[in-house]
Amino acid sequence: MSNLVKVGTTMAGTYEQICNSGFLAQFPDSEFRNESRLTGFGDVYIKSELVDQFNQLKEQMLEQNGSFPIL
Prior knowledge:
Elements lengths: L3 E8 H9 L2 H4 L4 E3 L7 E7 L3 H15 L6
Antiparallel strand pairs: 1-3, 2-3
C-alpha cells in the first residue's frame, strides 16, 4: 500500500489549476491539505513511489521556467 508523502506547499487555487492541467493524471491520488483554513496555502501530498518522479519534474521545470507551482 502506498503512503502519501508531503512534497511541498502551494495555494488552493494553484493546486486546482495544476489538477485541471493533468497533475492528477500524472500523480494519481494526490491530496491538498489546508489545515489552518486561515490562509489559502496548504500542503501537497503524493504517493511515496512517485516522489522521485515528482522531484525530477520539479527540477526540470525550475531549469526551464525558473519556477514551479509547488514550493
